[in-house]
């Protein structure tokens, strides 16, 4: 189950990978040149996306590897499940905000003081609105708006995952960690249908449980105030 969600996040984190998977899902298979023409993507972007997706086991080559022409690609079983996971998610209303516009500005201050450059972004996710605070303009520049919406929708809309985890002997966890290409994203369910997404650098080597505890402690008062 986790592999499917990690793969979904990997697809969602690049508009090129997302577009290629969408094409393969609709058409069953495709040649790089044909995918490029029909999606209006430059062929180098398509070729790179296919290579990346193949390395992750999301896409497979349907002809012998030695065949240089007519290299036909299709989604693997994992790729089909992962893309379906992305495609089912609804796009959210998302806005990039400064610290003072974030629902819990004290959380940003606390995490930045503890984790500094390891912190990439924090997203406050309500059913109809998501507010994201990026740690720097450099990180923000790595994502276009559609990609951000797809990532957030894919990770937050995890009802079927929660249902599966609830059936485990240990019950549902307090947080779920997703691996993206350049980051780890920690999903922390709060109260009142609100979720928190905390993105940290892929090389983050600190205790994620402590990170989660900090988020729950600092946001507790904010969520209670919203209920009043």
Automatic annotation (TrEMBL):
Pfam family, one: DUF7522
Protein's recorded name: ArsR family transcriptional regulator
Organism (species): Haloferax marinum
């Amino acid at each position: 189950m986790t592999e499917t969600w990690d793969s979904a996040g990997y697809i969602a984190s690049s508009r090129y990978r997302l577009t290629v998977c969408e094409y393969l899902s609709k058409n069953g298979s495709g040649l790089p040149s044909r995918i490029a023409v029909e999606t209006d993507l430059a062929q180098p972007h398509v070729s790179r996306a296919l290579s990346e997706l193949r390395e992750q086991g999301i896409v497979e080559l349907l002809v012998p590897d030695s065949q240089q022409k007519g290299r036909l690609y299709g989604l693997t079983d994992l790729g089909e499940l992962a893309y379906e996971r992305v495609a089912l998610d609804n796009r959210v209303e998302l806005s990039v905000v400064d610290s003072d516009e974030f629902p819990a500005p004290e959380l940003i201050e606390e995490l930045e003081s503890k984790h500094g450059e390891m912190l990439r972004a924090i997203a406050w996710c309500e059913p109809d609105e998501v507010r994201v605070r990026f740690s720097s303009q450099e990180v923000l520049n790595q994502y276009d708006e559609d990609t951000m919406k797809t990532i957030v929708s894919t990770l937050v809309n995890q009802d079927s995952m929660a249902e599966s985890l609830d059936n485990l002997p240990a019950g549902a966890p307090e947080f779920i960690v997703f691996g993206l290409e350049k980051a780890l994203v920690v999903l922390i369910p709060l109260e009142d249908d609100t979720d928190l997404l905390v993105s940290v650098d892929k090389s983050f080597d600190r205790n994620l449980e402590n990170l989660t505890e900090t988020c729950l402690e600092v946001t507790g008062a904010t969520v209670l105030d919203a209920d009043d």
